[in-house]
Amino acid sequence: MTRARQDRLLGLLVRDGEWATAATLADALGVTPRSIRSYVTAANARVAPGVAIESGPQGYRAGADASAALRAPGMDAGTPRDRLHRLVRALLDAPEGIDVFEFADRVHVSPATLDADLARVRGLLGGTELTLERSASTARLRGTEMAQRRLLSRLAHDEMDAGSFDLAALRRTLGEDSVGAAAFGPFKADLVSELGAMGYFVNEIGIADVVMHIAIAADRVSQDRGLEASAPDPRPAQQEIAGVIDRLARRDLGVELGTGDLHHLATLVLTRVVAPGDEAPAEQARARLDPGIEAAVRDVVGTASAEFLVDIAHEDFILRLALHVQNLQLRAQEQAWSRNPLTRSLKSTYPMIFEVAVFIASSLQERLGIPLPDDEIAYIAMHVGGRLERSRRADQLLTATIVCPGYYDLHELLRSSVDRSLGQAVEVVGVETRVDPDWDSIDTDLVLTTIDPATPSDRIVRIQPFLTDSDIERVQTAAGRIRRSRRLARLRTELERYFEAGAFLRGLADLDAPASRAADGAAAGGPSAEEPVIRALGSTLIAQGVIDEDYVERAIERERLSSTAFTDALAVPHAIGMTATRTAIAIGIADPSIPWGDGRVQVVALVAFSETDREAFQTVFEQFVEVFSERDSVQRIVRRATDFGGFLDELVAVIDG
C-alpha cells in the first residue's frame, strides 16, 4: 500500500464531491476494489477519530476531514517516498556527504534497500545539473547551490497536493527546524500588500510558489548556503522589489538575505507573480517588451485564431500574452517553472481552450526554443479562456418570452426582475400580456409564464408575478438543461458521421505489458507508454486511407507536449494540424484501465480532423470530453460496449439521457 495511491484516491473524491463505487475507483487507480477498501481505512486512520472518506450503500465520498488527511504527515513515515525525501534532504544538508551505513541504521533499512534508494536519487537528478558520487561508504551530491535549491523545490512540490502551497508539506521537505507558519503568514500578506501598493497586479496562484522559494532561501541562508551575487546590475524594478523582500525577511523571518538571494527572489517575483496595473498604458508595457517576442506571439496568435476559428487576435490579448511569454522565457532560462493548481481542472473542464493553448505553446517552442510543461501551458490557457469569455458570453444567452397577463405595470416589473436576476443566462425578447396567448406561436428558447400553459413543455417555466429565489433557480436549471441538450444533439449528429466500424478496438489492456516496458524507457528518452495504443488505433485509420504514418508520429509528438487525458477516464490523442483526408475517430476500450500520462484511462479516442471540418472541431472536442467526464456514463459504456455497434448504441443512449 502506498501513500501516493491513498492521496490520489483522496484527490479524486475531493475533486468530484460525489459518491463513487469501489469498482469505479479501482478502475481509476488501476488496483482492485479490495485495495480501495484498504486505502480508505488507511486514509481515515490519518485523521482519526475524524472521517477522511465516508462509506455508504452508494460507495465512497470525501468526508469532512479529507483535506486534512491530504496534508497529514501520516503514520507511514517509512514509505519509500518519505525515505527518499529524507535521504535527499540529508545529502543536501551535508556538503561532505553522508555515511550510507549509518543512514540505513537511522531509518531502519538494510544497506541493500538504501542502495536501491540511492539509485532512485540518481533518477531524480536527471536534468538538474547535480551528480551523486559514491566512494566506499560515503555518498555526496555535487552541483551548484542553485541546482540544489531546484531539487528542494521539486521535492516540496511532490509533497504538496495539486501544486497548492502547504506549509506543513514544505516543512517536511526542509526539516522541522525551518521557518514556521507564524512567520510566513504575515510575510505573505505584507508582500502581496506592498506589491499592490507599488502598482502591480499580483497573481495569487503564483505567489505561493514564490513564497516557497523564499522559504527555501531562508532555510539555506540559515545554513550559510546563500547564493553568490550575480554580475549584472539589477534593473530599478528589481532593486525596488528586492528592498521589500529584504525588509520583510528581516522583520518577519529573522533572516538577512544576501545580494545574490535578493536579486534571485526579486527576479522570481517579476517573472511569476506581477503584471503592470491598469494605470500602466499600453505604450509603457510595450516598452518593457522584446520586439522579437511580440512579433512571435502576434504571428502565433493569428495562426491559432485561424486554425481553431476562435476570436483571440486582439491587441490587448497579444500584449498581455507577449508580456507573459517574455517572463516565461526568463523562467525557462533559470529552469524556475511556475506551478498551477488549476491545470487538471482547466484541462478537463475546458479541453478546447487547453488545446488552443497547447497549439500556441508548441508554436512558441518552435519559434523561441522554450520548452513548456503542463503547468505553464495552463497559464496560457487562462489567457486564452479570459479572451474567449469576453467574446462568447453573448453567444450563451437564451432568448425568453415572459407571459404575464396585464395588470397595471406588473409585467414591466417582472421583466425588470428577470433582467436583473437572470440577465447573464437569458435575454427577454418579448412580453405577452394576454390571458390566452397563442402558445404555439411563441418560438423563443424559454417561456417564463405566470399562468399555466395549455400544454406543458420542458422550455416552459412557471414563475410567480414577483420573482422568487426558487423561480430563479428553476429558470437557471431549465436554461442549463436546454444548452446541454443542444450541445449533445450537435455532438450526436457529428459523431455518427465520424465513427468508423473498422476503427474500434476492445482490449487495450492487452497492450499494457509492452506499454509498461515503454514507460520504463520513457524516462531515459525512449518510447512513451502511450505509443503502442496510439499506433494500434492509428493503424485502423491508416488502413482506411484517413491518415498516414506521419499523422501517427505527429500525434505521438503532440502527446509528449501535454497528456491528452482530459478526464480521469478519457484520452483524446491527435496531431496538431487538420491534415486527415476526412474526419474520423478510432475508439479503443480498456477494461481494466491503462496508464496514460499521470493517470489512468478506460477510453481512448484517436481523432483525425480534416481541413473541411474545421468548424466541427470545437463541437466534437468539447462535448465528447463532457460526456466522458461523468463517471457513471463511462462505466456504462465500458462495460456494455463489447463491439462497435454496442459502443455506438450506449454512447447515443448516454447522450440522449
Automatic annotation (TrEMBL):
SUPFAM superfamilies recorded: Phoshotransferase/anion transport protein, PTS-regulatory domain, PRD
Lineage of the species this protein comes from: Bacteria, Bacillati, Actinomycetota, Actinomycetes, Micrococcales
Annotated PTS EIIA type-2 domain residues: 510-657
Species of origin: Microbacterium insulae
UniProt name for this protein: BglG family transcription antiterminator
InterPro entries reported in the protein's UniProt record: BglG_antiterminators (IPR050661), PRD (IPR011608), PRD_sf (IPR036634), PTrfase/Anion_transptr (IPR016152), PTS_EIIA_type-2_dom (IPR002178), WH-like_DNA-bd_sf (IPR036388)
Domain spans labelled PRD: 288-394
Any Pfam family the entry gives: PRD
Keywords carried by this UniProt record: Repeat
